[in-house]
């Protein structure tokens, strides 16, 4: 499952021996063009219901943007283990006569690198970039297939 943006990607990789009710694996955020890419990887373990909620949220956000609603109800998705944060911002989304969505929105992705010492506060690394509706819907479809 890969979410490709302009200048970054987020990959969710399920571990072998999958569970029906948990997503256990890795999240990898890659930043930059392939020749200069840097990547952060972390282990994730959260309910698959969180991924279903993510898919519903992506669909709702894109449809709200297509209607011109610049104040969607929920902008940030966070799974139960707090390993990731995805924020969908405003963009230019259009609905064609056949119902397909086209355009781009800005997406912010943060990965939790773990607690800092000695404070114990979480340290996040992130990226913000533009993602096409097509790529966001493709990511949503891949997630739904996996769960």
Description of the molecule:
The mean pLDDT is 87. The protein has one domain (2-146). It has helices at 48-66, 133-146; strands spanning 2-5, 8-14, 22-31, 38-47, 76-77, 84-95, 101-115, 122-132. With 147 residues, it is of the alpha+beta class. The longest helix is centred in the middle third of the chain and has 19 residues, at 48-66. A four-stranded antiparallel sheet has the order 1-2-3-4. The radius of gyration is 16 Å and the shape is globular. 22% of the residues lie in helices and 48% in strands. It contains two helices and eight strands.
Core attributes:
147 residues, alpha+beta, four-stranded antiparallel β-sheet, 2 helices, 8 strands, 22% helix, 48% strand, globular
Outline the fold blueprint.
Blueprint: E1 2-5, E2 8-14, E3 22-31, E4 38-47, H1 48-66, E5 76-77, E6 84-95, E7 101-115, E8 122-132, H2 133-146
């Amino acid at each position: 499952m890969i979410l490709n943006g302009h200048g970054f990607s987020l990959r969710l990789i399920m571990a072998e021996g999958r569970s029906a009710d948990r997503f256990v694996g890795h999240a990898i955020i890659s930043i930059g063009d392939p020749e200069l890419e840097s990547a952060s990887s972390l282990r994730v373990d959260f309910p698959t219901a969180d991924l279903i909620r993510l898919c519903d949220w992506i669909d709702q956000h894109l449809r709200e943007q297509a209607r011109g609603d610049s104040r969607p109800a929920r902008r940030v998705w966070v799974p139960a283990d707090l390993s990731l944060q995805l924020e969908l911002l405003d963009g230019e989304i259009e609905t064609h006569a056949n119902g397909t969505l086209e355009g781009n929105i800005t997406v912010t992705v943060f990965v939790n690198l773990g607690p800092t010492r000695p404070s114990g506060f979480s340290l996040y690394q992130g990226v913000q970039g533009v993602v096409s509706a097509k790529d966001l819907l493709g990511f949503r479809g891949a997630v739904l297939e996996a769960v």
